Automatic annotation (TrEMBL):
GO terms for molecular function: hydrolase activity. It comes from Streptomyces poriferorum. It holds the Pfam family CBM_4_9. Belongs to the glycosyl hydrolase 18 family. Chitinase class II subfamily. Its EC number is 3.2.1.14. Keywords: Carbohydrate metabolism, Glycosidase, Hydrolase, Polysaccharide degradation, Signal. This is chitinase.
Length: 609
Protein backbone atom coordinates (compact mmCIF):
# COMPACT_ATOMS: atom_id res chain seq x y z
CA UNK A 1 0.00 0.00 0.00
CA UNK A 2 1.52 3.30 -1.00
CA UNK A 3 1.99 5.82 1.77
CA UNK A 4 2.68 8.49 -0.85
CA UNK A 5 3.78 8.66 -4.47
CA UNK A 6 2.44 8.91 -8.00
CA UNK A 7 0.93 6.03 -9.98
CA UNK A 8 3.23 3.86 -12.06
CA UNK A 9 3.71 4.65 -15.71
CA UNK A 10 4.14 2.46 -18.75
CA UNK A 11 7.38 2.87 -20.68
CA UNK A 12 7.03 3.84 -24.34
CA UNK A 13 7.31 1.86 -27.56
CA UNK A 14 8.81 4.68 -29.62
CA UNK A 15 12.01 2.77 -30.32
CA UNK A 16 10.09 -0.27 -31.52
CA UNK A 17 7.91 2.00 -33.64
CA UNK A 18 10.90 3.54 -35.40
CA UNK A 19 12.64 0.22 -35.91
CA UNK A 20 9.54 -1.33 -37.38
CA UNK A 21 9.07 1.53 -39.80
CA UNK A 22 12.60 1.02 -41.04
CA UNK A 23 12.17 -2.74 -41.24
CA UNK A 24 8.97 -2.83 -43.26
CA UNK A 25 10.32 -0.88 -46.20
CA UNK A 26 10.76 -3.15 -49.18
CA UNK A 27 9.07 -6.13 -47.58
CA UNK A 28 6.74 -6.70 -50.52
CA UNK A 29 8.04 -9.60 -52.58
CA UNK A 30 7.46 -10.33 -56.23
CA UNK A 31 5.87 -13.56 -57.42
CA UNK A 32 4.57 -14.90 -60.72
CA UNK A 33 1.20 -13.54 -61.77
CA UNK A 34 -1.89 -15.51 -60.84
CA UNK A 35 -3.45 -17.56 -63.63
CA UNK A 36 -6.83 -16.82 -65.18
CA UNK A 37 -8.35 -19.83 -63.41
CA UNK A 38 -7.41 -18.54 -59.97
CA UNK A 39 -10.08 -17.28 -57.58
CA UNK A 40 -10.45 -15.24 -54.41
CA UNK A 41 -9.86 -17.74 -51.59
CA UNK A 42 -10.25 -15.30 -48.67
CA UNK A 43 -13.44 -15.61 -46.65
CA UNK A 44 -15.65 -12.60 -46.01
CA UNK A 45 -13.07 -10.11 -47.22
CA UNK A 46 -15.93 -7.67 -47.81
CA UNK A 47 -17.00 -7.87 -44.14
CA UNK A 48 -20.61 -8.07 -45.28
CA UNK A 49 -20.97 -10.93 -42.77
CA UNK A 50 -19.51 -8.86 -39.95
CA UNK A 51 -16.33 -10.38 -38.53
CA UNK A 52 -17.22 -13.94 -39.48
CA UNK A 53 -13.98 -15.75 -40.32
CA UNK A 54 -11.83 -13.01 -38.76
CA UNK A 55 -10.05 -12.79 -35.42
CA UNK A 56 -9.07 -9.36 -34.08
CA UNK A 57 -6.66 -9.11 -31.15
CA UNK A 58 -8.03 -7.80 -27.87
CA UNK A 59 -11.51 -7.37 -29.32
CA UNK A 60 -10.15 -4.43 -31.34
CA UNK A 61 -12.24 -4.97 -34.49
CA UNK A 62 -15.84 -4.26 -35.40
CA UNK A 63 -17.83 -4.19 -38.63
CA UNK A 64 -19.18 -0.71 -39.46
CA UNK A 65 -21.55 0.70 -42.08
CA UNK A 66 -19.51 3.84 -42.72
CA UNK A 67 -17.06 4.47 -44.21
CA UNK A 68 -17.13 1.59 -46.69
CA UNK A 69 -15.28 1.03 -49.96
CA UNK A 70 -17.88 -1.29 -51.45
CA UNK A 71 -21.09 -2.90 -50.29
CA UNK A 72 -22.55 -1.97 -46.92
CA UNK A 73 -19.88 -3.00 -44.41
CA UNK A 74 -16.17 -2.56 -43.64
CA UNK A 75 -13.72 -3.36 -40.88
CA UNK A 76 -12.89 -0.78 -38.23
CA UNK A 77 -10.04 -1.76 -35.89
CA UNK A 78 -8.68 0.39 -33.07
CA UNK A 79 -5.13 0.01 -31.68
CA UNK A 80 -4.77 0.39 -27.90
CA UNK A 81 -1.62 0.22 -25.80
CA UNK A 82 0.59 -2.60 -27.05
CA UNK A 83 -2.24 -4.02 -29.19
CA UNK A 84 -1.87 -2.97 -32.83
CA UNK A 85 -5.41 -4.15 -33.69
CA UNK A 86 -4.33 -7.07 -35.83
CA UNK A 87 -7.25 -8.74 -37.63
CA UNK A 88 -6.45 -12.01 -39.35
CA UNK A 89 -7.80 -15.18 -40.88
CA UNK A 90 -6.18 -18.45 -41.89
CA UNK A 91 -6.76 -19.41 -45.53
CA UNK A 92 -6.27 -22.81 -47.13
CA UNK A 93 -3.81 -22.67 -50.05
CA UNK A 94 -1.89 -24.98 -52.38
CA UNK A 95 1.86 -25.62 -52.11
CA UNK A 96 4.24 -24.04 -54.66
CA UNK A 97 1.61 -21.58 -55.84
CA UNK A 98 1.45 -17.86 -56.50
CA UNK A 99 -0.97 -15.56 -54.66
CA UNK A 100 -1.86 -11.88 -54.81
CA UNK A 101 -3.15 -10.24 -51.62
CA UNK A 102 -5.00 -6.91 -51.90
CA UNK A 103 -7.19 -4.72 -49.71
CA UNK A 104 -8.58 -1.21 -49.66
CA UNK A 105 -7.58 0.68 -46.51
CA UNK A 106 -8.05 4.05 -44.85
CA UNK A 107 -6.20 5.55 -41.88
CA UNK A 108 -2.70 6.14 -40.54
CA UNK A 109 -0.12 3.36 -40.66
CA UNK A 110 -2.27 0.57 -42.05
CA UNK A 111 -0.57 -2.74 -42.80
CA UNK A 112 -1.52 -5.68 -45.01
CA UNK A 113 0.44 -8.91 -44.99
CA UNK A 114 0.68 -12.68 -45.02
CA UNK A 115 2.61 -14.99 -42.72
CA UNK A 116 3.29 -18.71 -42.66
CA UNK A 117 3.83 -18.71 -46.42
CA UNK A 118 6.63 -21.25 -46.26
CA UNK A 119 8.87 -18.89 -48.24
CA UNK A 120 9.20 -15.20 -47.47
CA UNK A 121 6.41 -13.66 -45.43
CA UNK A 122 5.31 -10.36 -46.94
CA UNK A 123 3.87 -7.05 -45.80
CA UNK A 124 3.01 -3.68 -47.28
CA UNK A 125 1.73 -0.52 -45.61
CA UNK A 126 0.67 3.06 -46.03
CA UNK A 127 1.62 5.85 -43.70
CA UNK A 128 -1.41 8.05 -44.27
CA UNK A 129 -4.50 7.19 -46.26
CA UNK A 130 -7.09 9.90 -45.79
CA UNK A 131 -9.25 8.29 -48.47
CA UNK A 132 -9.53 4.68 -49.57
CA UNK A 133 -6.19 3.40 -50.86
CA UNK A 134 -5.41 -0.01 -52.33
CA UNK A 135 -2.55 -2.08 -50.90
CA UNK A 136 -1.25 -5.10 -52.80
CA UNK A 137 1.50 -7.62 -52.21
CA UNK A 138 2.36 -11.04 -53.67
CA UNK A 139 3.98 -14.23 -52.47
CA UNK A 140 4.61 -17.87 -53.39
CA UNK A 141 3.83 -20.69 -51.00
CA UNK A 142 6.41 -23.25 -49.95
CA UNK A 143 6.62 -26.88 -51.02
CA UNK A 144 4.57 -28.12 -48.06
CA UNK A 145 2.47 -25.05 -47.25
CA UNK A 146 -1.27 -25.71 -47.10
CA UNK A 147 -2.42 -22.63 -45.19
CA UNK A 148 -1.35 -19.03 -44.65
CA UNK A 149 -2.53 -16.29 -42.34
CA UNK A 150 -3.51 -12.99 -43.98
CA UNK A 151 -3.88 -9.92 -41.81
CA UNK A 152 -4.32 -6.19 -41.44
CA UNK A 153 -3.14 -4.13 -38.52
CA UNK A 154 -2.58 -0.55 -37.44
CA UNK A 155 0.11 0.92 -35.23
CA UNK A 156 0.42 1.50 -31.51
CA UNK A 157 -1.25 4.64 -30.21
CA UNK A 158 -2.70 5.66 -33.57
CA UNK A 159 -6.43 6.13 -34.31
CA UNK A 160 -8.68 3.45 -35.76
CA UNK A 161 -8.08 2.22 -39.29
CA UNK A 162 -10.51 0.80 -41.85
CA UNK A 163 -10.20 -2.07 -44.33
CA UNK A 164 -12.55 -3.41 -46.97
CA UNK A 165 -12.71 -5.64 -50.03
CA UNK A 166 -9.74 -7.80 -49.06
CA UNK A 167 -8.93 -10.53 -51.58
CA UNK A 168 -6.41 -13.34 -51.82
CA UNK A 169 -6.31 -14.47 -55.44
CA UNK A 170 -4.74 -17.81 -56.30
CA UNK A 171 -5.53 -21.52 -56.48
CA UNK A 172 -7.74 -22.80 -53.70
CA UNK A 173 -6.37 -25.49 -51.43
CA UNK A 174 -8.03 -28.62 -50.23
CA UNK A 175 -10.83 -27.52 -47.89
CA UNK A 176 -10.26 -27.81 -44.15
CA UNK A 177 -13.21 -29.39 -42.40
CA UNK A 178 -14.40 -28.80 -38.88
CA UNK A 179 -12.86 -31.12 -36.31
CA UNK A 180 -14.85 -33.97 -34.83
CA UNK A 181 -16.80 -33.46 -31.63
CA UNK A 182 -14.66 -34.49 -28.64
CA UNK A 183 -15.75 -37.70 -26.93
CA UNK A 184 -15.13 -39.22 -23.54
CA UNK A 185 -15.39 -36.03 -21.47
CA UNK A 186 -15.00 -36.94 -17.82
CA UNK A 187 -14.46 -35.11 -14.55
CA UNK A 188 -11.71 -35.97 -12.11
CA UNK A 189 -11.77 -35.49 -8.36
CA UNK A 190 -13.09 -31.98 -7.56
CA UNK A 191 -11.79 -29.69 -4.84
CA UNK A 192 -13.84 -27.00 -3.15
CA UNK A 193 -13.02 -24.57 -5.97
CA UNK A 194 -11.87 -26.56 -9.02
CA UNK A 195 -12.79 -29.48 -11.27
CA UNK A 196 -10.23 -31.33 -13.44
CA UNK A 197 -11.50 -32.43 -16.86
CA UNK A 198 -10.12 -34.73 -19.55
CA UNK A 199 -11.37 -36.01 -22.90
CA UNK A 200 -10.35 -38.05 -25.95
CA UNK A 201 -8.47 -36.30 -28.76
CA UNK A 202 -10.74 -35.23 -31.63
CA UNK A 203 -9.75 -35.87 -35.25
CA UNK A 204 -8.63 -32.69 -36.97
CA UNK A 205 -8.42 -30.62 -33.77
CA UNK A 206 -5.66 -28.12 -33.08
CA UNK A 207 -7.21 -26.85 -29.84
CA UNK A 208 -10.18 -27.15 -27.49
CA UNK A 209 -12.62 -24.82 -25.74
CA UNK A 210 -14.10 -25.68 -22.35
CA UNK A 211 -17.59 -24.47 -21.42
CA UNK A 212 -19.19 -24.22 -17.99
CA UNK A 213 -22.95 -23.91 -18.01
CA UNK A 214 -22.80 -23.01 -21.70
CA UNK A 215 -20.26 -20.18 -21.23
CA UNK A 216 -16.68 -20.39 -22.49
CA UNK A 217 -14.28 -20.43 -19.53
CA UNK A 218 -10.93 -21.48 -20.97
CA UNK A 219 -9.06 -22.80 -23.99
CA UNK A 220 -6.53 -25.63 -24.11
CA UNK A 221 -4.16 -27.18 -26.62
CA UNK A 222 -4.16 -30.63 -25.02
CA UNK A 223 -6.87 -33.03 -23.90
CA UNK A 224 -7.16 -31.94 -20.28
CA UNK A 225 -7.85 -28.77 -18.32
CA UNK A 226 -8.80 -27.70 -14.82
CA UNK A 227 -11.63 -25.23 -14.30
CA UNK A 228 -10.91 -23.09 -11.25
CA UNK A 229 -12.60 -20.27 -9.34
CA UNK A 230 -15.65 -22.38 -8.47
CA UNK A 231 -17.90 -22.19 -5.41
CA UNK A 232 -17.82 -24.91 -2.78
CA UNK A 233 -20.65 -27.49 -2.60
CA UNK A 234 -22.01 -26.47 -6.00
CA UNK A 235 -22.99 -28.60 -9.00
CA UNK A 236 -21.58 -27.60 -12.39
CA UNK A 237 -22.07 -28.83 -15.96
CA UNK A 238 -19.19 -28.86 -18.44
CA UNK A 239 -18.80 -29.37 -22.19
CA UNK A 240 -15.86 -29.19 -24.57
CA UNK A 241 -15.49 -28.35 -28.26
CA UNK A 242 -12.67 -28.93 -30.72
CA UNK A 243 -11.22 -26.12 -32.85
CA UNK A 244 -9.08 -25.69 -35.94
CA UNK A 245 -8.67 -23.09 -38.66
CA UNK A 246 -12.06 -24.02 -40.13
CA UNK A 247 -13.85 -23.17 -36.90
CA UNK A 248 -15.32 -24.91 -33.87
CA UNK A 249 -17.11 -28.24 -33.55
CA UNK A 250 -20.41 -28.76 -31.82
CA UNK A 251 -20.29 -29.14 -28.05
CA UNK A 252 -19.64 -32.54 -26.54
CA UNK A 253 -22.03 -34.37 -24.29
CA UNK A 254 -22.13 -32.67 -20.90
CA UNK A 255 -20.56 -34.00 -17.74
CA UNK A 256 -21.55 -32.85 -14.26
CA UNK A 257 -19.43 -32.48 -11.14
CA UNK A 258 -20.01 -31.06 -7.67
CA UNK A 259 -17.32 -29.22 -5.76
CA UNK A 260 -16.53 -30.34 -2.26
CA UNK A 261 -17.47 -28.53 0.93
CA UNK A 262 -15.11 -25.97 2.38
CA UNK A 263 -13.41 -23.31 0.34
CA UNK A 264 -14.31 -19.77 1.31
CA UNK A 265 -10.90 -18.65 0.19
CA UNK A 266 -8.95 -21.85 0.73
CA UNK A 267 -10.50 -22.47 4.15
CA UNK A 268 -9.07 -19.39 5.81
CA UNK A 269 -12.15 -17.33 5.03
CA UNK A 270 -14.81 -19.88 5.87
CA UNK A 271 -15.75 -18.10 9.09
CA UNK A 272 -15.65 -14.56 7.70
CA UNK A 273 -19.01 -12.80 7.47
CA UNK A 274 -20.71 -12.93 4.07
CA UNK A 275 -19.75 -9.28 3.55
CA UNK A 276 -16.50 -8.20 5.17
CA UNK A 277 -14.73 -4.90 5.75
CA UNK A 278 -10.93 -4.99 5.48
CA UNK A 279 -8.66 -2.23 6.72
CA UNK A 280 -4.95 -1.56 7.08
CA UNK A 281 -3.80 -0.41 10.50
CA UNK A 282 -0.66 1.75 10.61
CA UNK A 283 1.09 -0.22 13.32
CA UNK A 284 4.78 0.30 12.57
CA UNK A 285 4.83 3.96 11.55
CA UNK A 286 3.00 7.25 11.92
CA UNK A 287 1.80 9.71 9.31
CA UNK A 288 -0.70 12.55 9.14
CA UNK A 289 -3.59 10.31 10.16
CA UNK A 290 -2.23 9.64 13.63
CA UNK A 291 -1.65 6.37 15.47
CA UNK A 292 -4.64 4.14 16.30
CA UNK A 293 -4.25 1.49 18.98
CA UNK A 294 -5.43 -2.03 18.19
CA UNK A 295 -7.94 -1.95 21.03
CA UNK A 296 -9.49 1.22 19.57
CA UNK A 297 -10.30 -0.31 16.16
CA UNK A 298 -14.13 -0.44 15.93
CA UNK A 299 -15.99 -3.72 15.52
CA UNK A 300 -16.93 -2.76 11.95
CA UNK A 301 -13.56 -4.09 10.78
CA UNK A 302 -13.57 -7.82 10.05
CA UNK A 303 -10.00 -8.15 8.75
CA UNK A 304 -7.21 -5.98 10.15
CA UNK A 305 -3.93 -5.89 8.23
CA UNK A 306 -0.89 -4.79 10.24
CA UNK A 307 1.10 -2.35 8.10
CA UNK A 308 3.84 -3.33 7.53
CA UNK A 309 6.34 -6.14 7.78
CA UNK A 310 9.36 -5.00 5.78
CA UNK A 311 12.62 -6.69 4.65
CA UNK A 312 16.06 -5.97 6.02
CA UNK A 313 17.08 -5.50 2.37
CA UNK A 314 15.29 -5.80 -0.95
CA UNK A 315 16.66 -9.28 -1.72
CA UNK A 316 17.18 -10.75 1.76
CA UNK A 317 13.71 -12.20 2.23
CA UNK A 318 14.17 -11.44 5.94
CA UNK A 319 10.93 -9.77 7.08
CA UNK A 320 10.78 -7.80 10.33
CA UNK A 321 7.88 -6.18 12.18
CA UNK A 322 7.80 -3.98 15.25
CA UNK A 323 5.41 -1.45 16.72
CA UNK A 324 5.83 2.23 15.98
CA UNK A 325 8.52 3.72 18.24
CA UNK A 326 7.18 5.89 21.06
CA UNK A 327 9.20 8.85 19.78
CA UNK A 328 7.14 8.74 16.57
CA UNK A 329 3.86 7.52 18.09
CA UNK A 330 3.52 8.83 21.67
CA UNK A 331 0.25 6.94 22.25
CA UNK A 332 1.54 3.55 21.10
CA UNK A 333 0.56 0.64 23.33
CA UNK A 334 3.04 -1.82 24.82
CA UNK A 335 3.76 -5.09 22.98
CA UNK A 336 1.85 -6.97 25.69
CA UNK A 337 -1.17 -4.67 25.29
CA UNK A 338 -0.97 -5.04 21.51
CA UNK A 339 -0.95 -8.84 21.70
CA UNK A 340 -3.82 -8.84 24.18
CA UNK A 341 -5.87 -6.59 21.89
CA UNK A 342 -5.22 -8.97 18.97
CA UNK A 343 -6.54 -11.87 21.06
CA UNK A 344 -9.61 -9.86 21.95
CA UNK A 345 -10.29 -9.09 18.28
CA UNK A 346 -9.92 -12.76 17.38
CA UNK A 347 -12.25 -13.77 20.19
CA UNK A 348 -14.81 -11.44 18.59
CA UNK A 349 -14.42 -13.24 15.25
CA UNK A 350 -12.01 -10.80 13.62
CA UNK A 351 -8.92 -11.76 11.60
CA UNK A 352 -5.57 -10.04 12.13
CA UNK A 353 -2.88 -10.44 9.47
CA UNK A 354 0.66 -9.26 8.89
CA UNK A 355 0.88 -7.26 5.67
CA UNK A 356 4.21 -7.58 3.89
CA UNK A 357 5.58 -4.86 1.64
CA UNK A 358 3.86 -1.55 1.04
CA UNK A 359 5.37 1.36 -0.81
CA UNK A 360 8.65 1.29 1.08
CA UNK A 361 8.98 -2.46 1.61
CA UNK A 362 10.30 -3.77 -1.68
CA UNK A 363 10.64 -7.58 -1.54
CA UNK A 364 12.38 -9.60 -4.26
CA UNK A 365 12.70 -13.32 -3.57
CA UNK A 366 15.25 -13.83 -6.33
CA UNK A 367 16.88 -16.92 -4.78
CA UNK A 368 15.71 -20.03 -2.98
CA UNK A 369 17.70 -18.85 0.04
CA UNK A 370 15.65 -15.65 0.14
CA UNK A 371 12.50 -17.73 -0.28
CA UNK A 372 13.34 -19.92 2.69
CA UNK A 373 14.29 -16.91 4.81
CA UNK A 374 10.97 -15.31 3.91
CA UNK A 375 9.07 -18.38 5.12
CA UNK A 376 10.97 -18.59 8.40
CA UNK A 377 10.86 -14.87 9.18
CA UNK A 378 7.16 -14.46 8.35
CA UNK A 379 6.39 -17.56 10.44
CA UNK A 380 8.23 -15.97 13.34
CA UNK A 381 6.05 -12.84 13.14
CA UNK A 382 2.84 -14.86 12.86
CA UNK A 383 3.80 -17.00 15.85
CA UNK A 384 5.06 -14.06 17.93
CA UNK A 385 1.82 -12.10 17.65
CA UNK A 386 -0.59 -15.01 17.22
CA UNK A 387 -1.80 -13.83 13.81
CA UNK A 388 -4.32 -15.43 11.46
CA UNK A 389 -2.37 -15.17 8.24
CA UNK A 390 -0.63 -13.07 5.62
CA UNK A 391 -1.42 -10.16 3.32
CA UNK A 392 0.85 -9.73 0.29
CA UNK A 393 1.20 -6.07 -0.62
CA UNK A 394 4.17 -6.22 -2.97
CA UNK A 395 4.53 -2.94 -4.83
CA UNK A 396 7.07 -1.00 -6.85
CA UNK A 397 9.69 -3.33 -8.30
CA UNK A 398 9.01 -6.33 -6.05
CA UNK A 399 7.44 -8.29 -8.92
CA UNK A 400 8.41 -8.17 -12.58
CA UNK A 401 8.65 -10.75 -15.33
CA UNK A 402 11.80 -11.80 -17.12
CA UNK A 403 11.92 -11.52 -20.89
CA UNK A 404 10.44 -14.68 -22.39
CA UNK A 405 8.17 -15.37 -19.40
CA UNK A 406 4.93 -15.03 -21.38
CA UNK A 407 2.41 -17.47 -19.87
CA UNK A 408 0.86 -16.64 -16.49
CA UNK A 409 -0.12 -20.32 -16.09
CA UNK A 410 3.50 -21.50 -16.00
CA UNK A 411 5.78 -18.68 -14.80
CA UNK A 412 9.55 -19.01 -14.93
CA UNK A 413 10.76 -15.76 -13.32
CA UNK A 414 12.47 -16.56 -9.97
CA UNK A 415 10.88 -13.74 -7.94
CA UNK A 416 7.45 -14.99 -8.99
CA UNK A 417 8.12 -18.73 -8.69
CA UNK A 418 9.78 -18.31 -5.27
CA UNK A 419 6.94 -16.18 -3.91
CA UNK A 420 4.38 -18.79 -4.95
CA UNK A 421 6.46 -21.53 -3.34
CA UNK A 422 6.94 -19.54 -0.14
CA UNK A 423 3.22 -18.87 0.30
CA UNK A 424 2.38 -22.51 -0.37
CA UNK A 425 4.86 -23.49 2.34
CA UNK A 426 3.20 -21.11 4.81
CA UNK A 427 -0.24 -22.45 3.91
CA UNK A 428 0.98 -26.03 4.40
CA UNK A 429 2.46 -25.11 7.77
CA UNK A 430 -0.61 -23.35 9.20
CA UNK A 431 -3.34 -25.38 7.51
CA UNK A 432 -6.83 -24.65 6.26
CA UNK A 433 -7.50 -21.78 8.66
CA UNK A 434 -4.61 -19.76 7.26
CA UNK A 435 -5.96 -16.48 5.84
CA UNK A 436 -4.27 -15.27 2.64
CA UNK A 437 -5.06 -11.90 1.10
CA UNK A 438 -3.41 -9.80 -1.62
CA UNK A 439 -3.50 -6.08 -2.38
CA UNK A 440 -1.86 -5.51 -5.78
CA UNK A 441 -2.16 -2.34 -7.80
CA UNK A 442 -4.16 -2.28 -11.05
CA UNK A 443 -0.86 -2.03 -12.95
CA UNK A 444 -0.01 -5.57 -11.86
CA UNK A 445 -3.43 -7.14 -12.49
CA UNK A 446 -6.04 -5.53 -14.78
CA UNK A 447 -3.40 -3.95 -16.99
CA UNK A 448 -2.60 -7.55 -17.94
CA UNK A 449 -5.63 -7.45 -20.23
CA UNK A 450 -3.51 -5.30 -22.57
CA UNK A 451 0.09 -5.94 -21.54
CA UNK A 452 1.95 -8.84 -19.98
CA UNK A 453 5.57 -8.46 -18.96
CA UNK A 454 8.01 -6.94 -21.42
CA UNK A 455 5.85 -8.02 -24.36
CA UNK A 456 6.77 -9.62 -27.67
CA UNK A 457 9.36 -6.95 -28.51
CA UNK A 458 10.76 -6.35 -25.04
CA UNK A 459 9.72 -2.69 -24.95
CA UNK A 460 7.04 -2.83 -22.24
CA UNK A 461 7.35 -2.39 -18.51
CA UNK A 462 8.10 -5.96 -17.26
CA UNK A 463 5.93 -5.38 -14.19
CA UNK A 464 2.73 -5.19 -16.25
CA UNK A 465 0.39 -7.98 -15.14
CA UNK A 466 3.11 -9.52 -12.97
CA UNK A 467 0.71 -10.43 -10.13
CA UNK A 468 -1.43 -12.61 -12.41
CA UNK A 469 0.74 -15.77 -12.13
CA UNK A 470 0.81 -15.39 -8.34
CA UNK A 471 -2.95 -14.99 -8.06
CA UNK A 472 -3.58 -17.85 -10.47
CA UNK A 473 -1.21 -20.30 -8.79
CA UNK A 474 -2.62 -19.52 -5.34
CA UNK A 475 -6.31 -19.09 -6.23
CA UNK A 476 -7.35 -22.23 -4.35
CA UNK A 477 -5.59 -20.91 -1.23
CA UNK A 478 -6.67 -17.29 -1.65
CA UNK A 479 -9.09 -15.83 0.87
CA UNK A 480 -9.37 -12.33 -0.58
CA UNK A 481 -8.03 -10.31 -3.48
CA UNK A 482 -8.57 -6.59 -3.01
CA UNK A 483 -6.86 -4.72 -5.83
CA UNK A 484 -6.03 -1.10 -5.06
CA UNK A 485 -8.47 0.88 -7.22
CA UNK A 486 -6.48 4.04 -6.52
CA UNK A 487 -3.12 5.64 -7.28
CA UNK A 488 -3.80 4.26 -10.74
CA UNK A 489 -3.66 5.46 -14.29
CA UNK A 490 -6.57 4.85 -16.65
CA UNK A 491 -7.10 1.12 -17.31
CA UNK A 492 -8.91 -0.58 -20.18
CA UNK A 493 -11.92 -2.65 -19.14
CA UNK A 494 -13.59 -5.59 -20.85
CA UNK A 495 -15.59 -3.09 -22.92
CA UNK A 496 -12.26 -2.02 -24.49
CA UNK A 497 -12.76 1.48 -23.11
CA UNK A 498 -10.45 3.25 -20.69
CA UNK A 499 -11.76 3.86 -17.17
CA UNK A 500 -10.39 6.39 -14.69
CA UNK A 501 -10.37 6.23 -10.91
CA UNK A 502 -12.51 8.29 -8.58
CA UNK A 503 -16.05 7.17 -9.51
CA UNK A 504 -18.30 4.13 -9.49
CA UNK A 505 -17.47 3.33 -13.13
CA UNK A 506 -13.83 2.54 -12.33
CA UNK A 507 -14.67 0.11 -9.53
CA UNK A 508 -17.40 -1.55 -11.58
CA UNK A 509 -15.14 -2.12 -14.59
CA UNK A 510 -12.09 -3.24 -12.57
CA UNK A 511 -14.10 -5.63 -10.38
CA UNK A 512 -15.99 -7.05 -13.36
CA UNK A 513 -12.61 -8.04 -14.82
CA UNK A 514 -11.67 -9.98 -11.69
CA UNK A 515 -15.00 -11.81 -11.52
CA UNK A 516 -15.37 -12.49 -15.25
CA UNK A 517 -11.77 -13.23 -16.20
CA UNK A 518 -9.98 -11.97 -19.30
CA UNK A 519 -7.54 -12.97 -22.04
CA UNK A 520 -4.06 -11.93 -20.96
CA UNK A 521 -2.48 -9.45 -23.38
CA UNK A 522 -5.44 -10.10 -25.66
CA UNK A 523 -4.44 -13.73 -26.23
CA UNK A 524 -7.61 -15.81 -26.34
CA UNK A 525 -5.60 -18.98 -25.66
CA UNK A 526 -4.39 -17.55 -22.32
CA UNK A 527 -7.51 -16.62 -20.38
CA UNK A 528 -7.15 -15.64 -16.72
CA UNK A 529 -10.20 -17.30 -15.12
CA UNK A 530 -12.46 -15.18 -12.96
CA UNK A 531 -12.33 -15.52 -9.19
CA UNK A 532 -15.23 -16.49 -6.96
CA UNK A 533 -17.16 -13.44 -5.70
CA UNK A 534 -16.43 -14.38 -2.08
CA UNK A 535 -12.73 -14.00 -2.93
CA UNK A 536 -13.04 -10.41 -4.16
CA UNK A 537 -13.27 -7.10 -2.31
CA UNK A 538 -12.97 -3.59 -3.78
CA UNK A 539 -9.96 -1.59 -2.58
CA UNK A 540 -10.45 2.15 -1.99
CA UNK A 541 -8.82 5.01 -0.05
CA UNK A 542 -10.73 5.99 3.09
CA UNK A 543 -10.34 9.74 2.57
CA UNK A 544 -8.98 12.29 0.14
CA UNK A 545 -5.76 12.34 2.18
CA UNK A 546 -5.29 8.58 1.97
CA UNK A 547 -4.56 8.32 -1.77
CA UNK A 548 -5.40 9.54 -5.24
CA UNK A 549 -8.74 8.34 -6.52
CA UNK A 550 -10.87 8.79 -3.41
CA UNK A 551 -14.46 7.77 -4.13
CA UNK A 552 -17.38 9.40 -2.33
CA UNK A 553 -19.69 7.17 -0.28
CA UNK A 554 -22.48 7.77 -2.81
CA UNK A 555 -20.30 6.50 -5.67
CA UNK A 556 -19.18 3.51 -3.59
CA UNK A 557 -22.84 2.66 -3.08
CA UNK A 558 -23.46 2.89 -6.83
CA UNK A 559 -20.59 0.48 -7.49
CA UNK A 560 -21.94 -2.01 -4.95
CA UNK A 561 -25.45 -1.70 -6.39
CA UNK A 562 -24.21 -2.44 -9.88
CA UNK A 563 -22.03 -5.40 -8.95
CA UNK A 564 -24.41 -7.05 -6.47
CA UNK A 565 -27.83 -6.00 -7.86
CA UNK A 566 -27.15 -4.83 -11.45
CA UNK A 567 -28.60 -1.41 -10.78
CA UNK A 568 -26.87 2.01 -10.97
CA UNK A 569 -24.44 0.59 -13.54
CA UNK A 570 -24.31 3.67 -15.74
CA UNK A 571 -22.96 2.97 -19.22
CA UNK A 572 -20.89 -0.09 -18.29
CA UNK A 573 -22.48 -3.50 -18.84
CA UNK A 574 -21.21 -6.05 -16.31
CA UNK A 575 -20.86 -9.71 -17.25
CA UNK A 576 -22.82 -10.93 -14.25
CA UNK A 577 -24.46 -10.08 -10.93
CA UNK A 578 -22.56 -11.09 -7.81
CA UNK A 579 -24.59 -10.82 -4.63
CA UNK A 580 -21.81 -12.77 -2.90
CA UNK A 581 -19.16 -10.08 -3.47
CA UNK A 582 -17.18 -10.23 -0.25
CA UNK A 583 -16.95 -6.52 0.51
CA UNK A 584 -14.58 -3.56 0.69
CA UNK A 585 -10.97 -2.90 1.63
CA UNK A 586 -9.54 0.48 2.53
CA UNK A 587 -6.30 2.25 3.12
CA UNK A 588 -6.69 2.71 5.98
CA UNK A 589 -8.29 2.32 9.40
CA UNK A 590 -6.26 5.31 10.55
CA UNK A 591 -7.38 7.53 7.67
CA UNK A 592 -10.99 6.47 8.19
CA UNK A 593 -10.74 7.53 11.81
CA UNK A 594 -9.21 10.83 10.64
CA UNK A 595 -12.27 11.25 8.37
CA UNK A 596 -14.79 10.58 11.17
CA UNK A 597 -15.26 6.93 10.11
CA UNK A 598 -17.16 7.91 6.92
CA UNK A 599 -15.94 4.86 4.97
CA UNK A 600 -16.84 2.21 7.56
CA UNK A 601 -20.15 3.91 8.38
CA UNK A 602 -21.14 3.71 4.71
CA UNK A 603 -20.19 0.01 4.63
CA UNK A 604 -22.23 -0.71 7.75
CA UNK A 605 -25.22 1.18 6.38
CA UNK A 606 -25.12 -0.72 3.09
CA UNK A 607 -24.63 -4.23 4.47
CA UNK A 608 -26.54 -3.72 7.72
CA UNK A 609 -23.53 -3.87 10.01
Amino acid sequence: MERTGPPARMTGLLAAFSAALLAVGGLAATAPSASAADADVARNGTFEAGLTGWNCTGGSGVAVSTPVHGGTSALKATPAGSDNAKCSQTVTVKPNSAYTLSAWVQGSYVYLGAEGTGTTDVSTWTQSAGAWQKLTTTFRTGASTTSVKVYTHGWYGTPAYYADDLTLVGPGGDPVVLPAVPAGLRAGTPTSSSVPLSWTAATGATGYNVYRGGALVLSATGTSATVTGLTASTAYSFQVTATNEAGESAKSAAVSATTTAGGGGGGGGSDLPAHALVGYLHSSFANGSGYTRMADVPDSWDVIDLAFGEPTSVTSGDIRFSLCPVTECPNVESVAEFKAAIKAKQAAGKKVLISIGGQNGQVQLATTAARDTFVSSVSKIIDEYGLDGLDIDFEGHSLSLNTGDTDFRSPTTPVVVNLISAVKSLKAKYGEKFVLTMAPETFFVQLGYQYYGSGPWGGQDPRAGAYLPVIHALRDDLTLLHVQDYNSGSIMGLDNQYHSMGGADFHIAMTDMLLTGFPVAGDQTKVFPGLRPDQVAIGLPASTQAGNGHTSPAEVTKALNCLTKKTDCGSYATHGTWSGLRGLMTWSVNWDRFNNWAFSKNFDAYFGG
